[in-house]
Specification:
Elements (H helix, E strand, L loop, with lengths): L1 H23 L1 H11 L6 E5 L4 H12 L3 E6 L2 H14 L5 E5 L5 H15 L4 E4 L14 H29 L2 E6 L13 H24 L3 E8 L2 E2 L13 E2 H13 L4 E4 L1 H13 L2 H7 L1
Parallel strand pairs: 1-2, 1-4, 2-3, 4-5, 5-6, 6-9, 7-8
Helix pairs in contact: 1-2, 2-8, 3-8, 5-6, 6-7
Length: 289
């Protein structure tokens, strides 16, 4: 028992050190991983990969040598991304499939087809989502319902499909993309969005707890992105602490590679902002959100 405890402490300390470097200096951390080509022979499945953070993460992971299983609704975008990445990194393998994540049967079919293609899925990134929502009680139930369904129920289907594969493999890494807005209930147009992202974060934590109780070698990471300028918020006004898609994608991939349980990205200032959001009065949080 004592030896097991010591091993756990050493592992935790090592992971903590890696996360500290990945959080404070993500570009430097990724450069080191790139030199090692840590992804060679491994496969990452990414949903919502046709644009935004999904496509951004795919570009960073491809540079690290990973094979990619990418899916989204827009076939032409996936084909363009595949050709772009193979032109840069001809030694990796990329397969894509179209997927509407609200078609739950298709979610399982596509995930299992990728498993058949590659023989093994090392990591699944549950990224597909939408940012549209409206004020509650203003007659926009269908918009809010769709946002809640895509961001939570569809994510549940994706987690089910991924974890079933990982259980069969007895190995894997599940990554769920939440949002800084999940830290508190927020007002106005973002109410349903923030609630759906909080729900998916709690789903990930529950899965993580189940893996610990079951003593399965399956890691679960929850990512809370701050304001990252992508297609989903292209027309929005400039936002506090905003970064571009490339910078945001690098910060997310660095956090994922460190295999941390939870990470606010970019870490500075969002890890500090996240703690403040949890404890400030709701009236203050509502004003700064």
């Amino acid at each position: 028992m004592q030896n097991k405890l010591l091993d756990l402490l050493k592992k935790t300390a090592k992971q903590g050190g890696e996360h500290a470097i990945s959080a404070v200096q993500p570009a430097r951390y990724l450069q080191s991983l790139n030199q090692k080509q840590v992804g060679v022979g491994k496969t990452i499945l990414i949903t919502g990969a046709s644009s935004g953070l999904g496509a951004g993460m795919a570009r960073v992971f491809a540079k690290l040598g990973y094979n990619l299983a990418i899916c989204a609704r827009r076939r032409e975008r996936l084909e363009d991304l595949k050709q772009e990445l193979l032109g840069r990194y001809p030694d990796i393998r990329i397969e894509y499939r179209t997927l509407d994540v609200t078609d739950y049967d298709a979610v399982f079919d596509v995930f299992n087809a990728f498993k058949t293609d590659f023989g093994h899925i090392d990591r699944a990134i549950i990224n597909a989502g939408v940012g549209e929502s409206r004020r509650i009680g203003k007659g926009s139930f269908e918009i809010n319902r769709r946002t809640a369904e895509i961001n939570f129920v569809s994510a549940l289907a994706q987690c089910e499909a991924a974890v079933a594969i990982f259980r069969a493999q007895n190995q894997g890494h599940l990554v769920v993309i939440s949002s800084m807005s999940a830290m508190r209930g927020l007002p106005g147009y973002i109410t349903t969005y923030s609630a759906s992202k909080a729900a998916v974060a709690h789903l990930a934590e529950g899965i993580r707890a189940d893996m610990l109780v079951s003593k399965l070698p399956i890691d679960v990471t929850t990512i809370y992105p701050g304001y990252i300028r992508t297609e989903i918020n292209e027309g929005a006004k400039p936002l506090p602490f905003e970064v571009d898609a490339k910078t945001g994608s690098q910060a997310i991939v660095a956090a994922i590679e460190s295999r941390v349980e939870e990470a606010c990205v970019p870490s500075l200032p969002w890890s500090i902002v996240g703690q403040a959001m949890k404890h400030l009065p709701l009236q203050v949080v509502s004003k700064i959100s």
